[in-house]
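User: I'm writing a tutorial on reading structure tokens. Could you give me a worked example: one chain, its sequence, then its tokens, then a sentence or two explaining what the tokens reveal?
Assistant: Sure. Here is the example chain.
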Amino acid sequence: FNSRTGEAVGKSLIEITAHYLPVELWQRCAKTGESQEAQFDTRDRSLTLQTTAVPLASILKGSTLLLFHDITRQRQTDIMRRDFISNVSHELRTPLAAVKTLTETLQDGALEDPPIAHRFLDKIETEVDAMSLLVAELLELARIESGRVPVELQPVRPLDIVQPVAERLQLQAERSGITLSVDCPPDLPAVMADAGRLQQVLVNLLHNAVKFTAPGGSISVGAAAQEGFVRFAVTDTGQGIAPEDLPRIFERFYKTDKSRSTSGTGLGLAIARHLVEVHGGRIWVESELDKGSTFTFTIPLA
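And here are its predicted structure tokens:
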């Protein structure tokens, strides 16, 4: 309850807990002689506590034992599980509904009009591809989280991680009217990494940067040495991320576009975070609305 012993002695229970519920449980327990149980959040909502009041009449007359069990993580896990199921349902329902509508239209006569039939079949293929990508990324995330993804760590030059990804995304950036630059000195110390997996992280970050940067903007990808690590970063001049979205940006299915009008599964950053952590590194983002974002992750030196 964020209260020191010296400050707590002599104060009432409600002053210490800053909540009426423990007092109510205690009084009800004392009155009925039966155990009582309830949950409540601390005043700053940083903790959820399962509270049990047990009568001690047979041991200490007139006394009641109050047990506070921190179930914050359990509640957060329950919320994440509910959100996960809701998001999967939403992400699958939309393309399935589109496929059903297109199929019914074809069955109702559109098949007799070859140009329209071909256009509808192309749309069905697009929706099926979107569902296939979602399922593939769900399986990938599940494997990573369960530790079943083989990661072959060996000394790798940072340039050998950054350069192939930049070359791969260069054409996509040019088509979008965006300048993509690389800042990765060839003499940087090697990192202990699975090059393919870290390239997967950078592809995701660069793809997002291109998607959320307007024509005429710029993106830079690079690496720099720091004590014990190499720091990789992708910086863009895009639309930025709202402050309220920043703490949740690496959660599964979390999208800053609440209308979900942008493409993507919402799993890429969650996969990136897990892959970086598997390497013993960490990933974070700094961003300002309408000015751009910088996604940074560190990887230990070889």
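What the tokens reveal: Helices lie at 5-8, 13-17, 20-32, 72-107, 114-145, 158-175, 195-211, 268-278. The chain has a mean pLDDT of 87.
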